[in-house]
Specification:
This protein is of the alpha+beta class. 20% of the residues lie in helices and 33% in strands. The protein contains 11 helices and 31 strands. The longest helix has 15 residues. The two termini are 37 Å apart.
Length: 483
Amino acid sequence: MSSHIHELWTELNLPEEYPELDKTSVLARVNTALDGSARPKEAHMKRNLRLTVLLAAALVLLTGTVAAAYRSGMLSLFFRGDTSQLEPYVQSASDTAENQDYRLRVDNSLYDGQNIYAVVTVEALNDQAAADLMSNRVIAQAHRETWGEEMANGLLESGSTGPDTFRSNLSSLCQSGSPDAPKLASSTGSRELPHPTDHSRAWQIDIQLCSYMGPLEYPLEVWVNFMGRDCAVEIPLNRMVEPIRLTPNEEVTYNTYTGHKGRLREFILTPVSFSIDAELLEDPGSSYYASFADMAEDVFFLRMKDGSILTRTQLGGVNGQFETVVDLSQVVSVIYGYTEFPADGSPSFPARLPEQLYPFTCTEIVPDGYGYFRFPVEELCTKLGADYQWDENTQTAAASYRGVTLTMTVGESGYRANGEWVELCYETRSDPSDPAYQALPQRIALEGGVLTAPVNLLESWSVDYPYLRDDSGTPIGQMLVIP
C-alpha cells in the first residue's frame, strides 16, 4: 500500500491554497496507519477501497482549514458519483469532548433533513486507555452489563463495535419536531475505518431520523457509551441542501405490481435520500405483506433534463437512502406509480414509461441445494429490455444492460462484468469472521437446454430481487424483480 501513496495523494487533488500542509509528515502517518490497521471486514466494502482507505486515514489527521480540503473524501465513504454539490454542506471539525482517558471528535458531518452522515474519531489520552481502546476491551466492557458475558467476549474476540457503542439523543430530537410529523423508526449504523494512529480509532456513522425534519436550530448530541453522555459532541443540523418537496395529495397506483390504489400525500427528494408519505386506499389482505409484494410500494423514477430515467434501484435506494448522489438541479419530474409530478410543483399528468422499468415477477425459479435461487438468463433479459446474445460454439452468453455487459460461460463459477471477473458464491453469513460463515461456489449452467444463473448476478446491474413468499414466509418459487 505504501508504494502507491504518492499516486493516491495526487488523486486527492488538494487545492494549492494550503501551503502550511506538510505533505511529507502526513504521508508518513498515513503510511503507518494503512500498513498496520487493515481489518478483514474492509475487504468486501463496495467502495473503492484503495482511495477510501487513504481518505479515511487523512480525514482524522487534519483539523481546521486543512480538514476542509478533505470534504470530498468524507463524502466518498458514503456515496457514489459526483459529490461536489454536497461539499459546501459538509461541516468540518464541528465539536470535541474528552475526559481523563479519551477524546471524542466529529471530523466531518453532513445533514440532509432526514439523515446525518459523520466521521468521528476516538483518541486515547494515555497508554492504558490506548491499550483498552485498540484491544477493544473498553467497548466490550461497556456492553457487558446490558448484553451479558457472551456479547462482551464476542466483541473482545472480533474487535467489532457492537450495537450500543454510539449513542445519541435521537428519540428526543424526533419528538421535538412537528406534532404532525409521523414518528417512524430511527436508526444509527456505523462502520469502522482504518486506525488513524496506534492510539486512535475512527468510524463513519449513519443516523436516520424518524422522519423528514428539515433544518433544525438545535444540534444532535452523539457520544460513545464508555465515555458517557457528559462527553457528548454536537452535530449541527441547521445547514442542508434545499430538497425537492412535492405535496400532491392525489390518488395514484400505490403498487404497480399488485395494482393497488393509494394516495400520495408528500414526496421529498434530497441529493442522497427520499421520503414518501403515501397510504393504501384499500385493505390488501394479510398475504400482501407476507409475500413481499409490498416491496413494490416505494418504486419511483426520476426524469432528468437530458431525457434519461433514473430508477430507485439504479440509485441504490434502500431504506430511504441513496448510494448515488442525485443532482436536484437536473431533475425534471418524479414519477410515482403511473403518474408524473413535475419538480416545479405544476399539475401532474399520466406518465409514459417503458413497461420493463416497472416491477415484475420474473419466472419460475429453480431452487438449489443451499436455499438460493437461479433464473433463466434470456427470459429475464427480455423482461428487463436487456440485449442478449448466445454463442452455441463457446457456450457463452453476453447480456448488456445499463452500460454493463455480463459474459457468462456454462460451467464457470463466475462471470465477467465489463471484462472484470466476478466470483459467484453463496455466503451463509454476511460476516466472514463468523464461525458459521461459508462461501459456497455457484455456477453458470444449462438446465434443460436453458441457460440459468444465480440471482446474485443481478447485483452487477443494480437490480433488486426480493423473493415472493406465502403466508408462512416460505419462498413460493418466484421472485419480484425491481429494475
